[in-house]
Request: fold
Amino acid sequence: MVDIDINYSGELHSTAKHIPSGAIIETDAPVDNQGKGEAFSPTDLCASSLGVCMLTILGIVAKNNDIELGTVKGKVKKEMSNDMPRRISKISISFEIPLPSSHLKKDLIEEAMLNCPVHHSLHPEIEKEIVFNWQDD
Reply:
């Protein structure tokens, strides 16, 4: 269990403080929902959480299988529904993995990443488009 303190500071801004580390995340409502877009929106954090959770699982798999990984990059795109209630309708993520597509652990890596805890926690109606781009020589 992890404790997180949350506070609303006005002007559609909030903060979340991770008690064990003291790290703070600031949020703002997005421009298309009455905010100024001055920070991540809560739904931005949700979509980003999927991507970084998948990267975390990738790191665990690499560590446990002696895979020299290097830097993995990704891009997250979040789409909101046009109907009500307002919700995330689609999350698209593309990863640039600096390993060849012929890597012996490729299937293990992809399967593990697709089974991260956030992926399993998101509502099944949220469309998830995940692309793995492997570096081929």
Summary: The mean pLDDT is 96. The beta strands are 4-10, 13-18, 24-28, 73-80, 88-97, 127-134.
